[in-house]
Design a protein that fits this description.
By secondary structure, the protein is mainly alpha-helical. It is 76% helix and 0% strand. It is built from 14 helices and no strands.
Length: 316
């Protein structure tokens, strides 16, 4: 009598999401959405921008390096091209983070997140430029985003802070560049290795402004240290889940899930910071989200940016 082996157990929904990258792409915006709220709380207790950026990034870097050194040191192994490219991607993001947090000293967290989410427009546009083809849909989505930003900023109760808005747009562009670069880098190395060196690159970039202009450590209150610590932990987790999502889903689809971080920030900001939108601002926010969600109808967008092989082959 022949016995047949039992059929393989169907993976659970959580396992399927982890395998396809959806779990990581969902978790990343949850962590990212909390960070601006913590930044606002740190500002309220007297922490300055440069100390906030540098110390939270250093915390996140130490958390990731400690995890790797304790549990699997092989994750720190990487080739010279991969290491330098990851440091470059992280450095670009570190440059953008300076503008992101400087912006949050001038505008509300919820408004800043809605402007920052336009990084998805930048991701699509960058990939289009590399492919040397700008579609009518891309142009239409860009025009929608510009219109949405205008309604979002000009529709507030007070005069719009255009400098703060400009800072946030620079941050969004820097984040988009990092996403595009990271997708190519992770064809060569694991996501956690990319995260490790990218966040190290971030630390190197934000360290100098802090040393030159940051406040003395003894002037930071206990509440300030608590906010910075939680920001560092959220930063480490958000970067790790972000790159895990990019590795599985690609930069555009992972960025699309980032829309959720806006919802997280708006809800928490309304509950704990008392931030509210006018009807005009809600209209602008909806227009921006429509522009972003239209990415599903983009066609023939190149998914691979192969600057890596072009540069390193000539260098070697």
């Amino acid at each position: 009598m022949h016995t047949h082996p039992p059929p393989p157990k169907k993976p659970s929904l959580l396992q399927q999401w982890r395998q396809t990258g959806i779990l990581w792409a969902v978790l990343s915006p949850l962590f990212l959405g909390i960070i601006p709220i913590l930044a606002k709380l740190a500002y309220q207790v007297g922490v300055d921008v440069y100390s906030l950026i540098a110390i939270r990034t250093l915390f996140a870097t130490l958390i990731l390096w400690g995890y790797v050194l304790l549990f699997n040191r092989r994750w720190a192994e990487s080739s010279a091209p991969a290491t330098l490219s990851s440091l470059l991607a992280g450095g670009i993001n570190g440059f953008g983070s300076i503008f992101f947090y400087a912006s949050l000293t001038r505008i509300d967290a919820s408004l800043g997140q809605l402007i920052n989410i336009t990084y998805l427009i930048f991701v699509t546009f960058i990939l289009r430029l590399i492919g040397q083809k700008i579609s009518l849909l891309t142009l239409f989505r860009t025009a929608l985003a510009i219109l949405g930003i205008y309604w979002l900023t000009a529709g507030g109760l007070g005069d719009p802070d255009w400098l703060g808005i400009g800072f946030m747009l620079i941050a969004a562009l820097s984040y988009a560049v990092q996403l595009v670069l990271s997708q190519r880098i992770m064809y060569e190395i694991p996501a956690i290795t990319m995260t490790l060196y990218a966040i190290t690159g971030m630390s190197l970039v934000v360290l100098l402004p802090w040393l030159l202009m940051g406040q003395p450590l003894q002037n930071i209150s206990l509440a300030g240290w608590q906010a910075i610590f939680w920001m560092g932990l959220a930063t480490a987790l958000s970067r790790l889940t972000l790159f895990l999502g990019v590795k599985r889903l690609g930069s555009i689809q992972t960025a699309l899930f980032g829309v959720a971080e806006v919802v997280v920030t708006i809800l928490i900001a309304a509950a704990f910071l008392g931030e509210q939108f006018t009807l005009s601002q809600w209209t602008g926010g909806v227009i921006i989200l429509i522009s972003i969600l239209l990415v599903n109808f983009e066609r023939d967008v190149p998914r691979l940016v192969d600057w890596w092989r072009f540069f390193w082959n000539r260098r070697m």
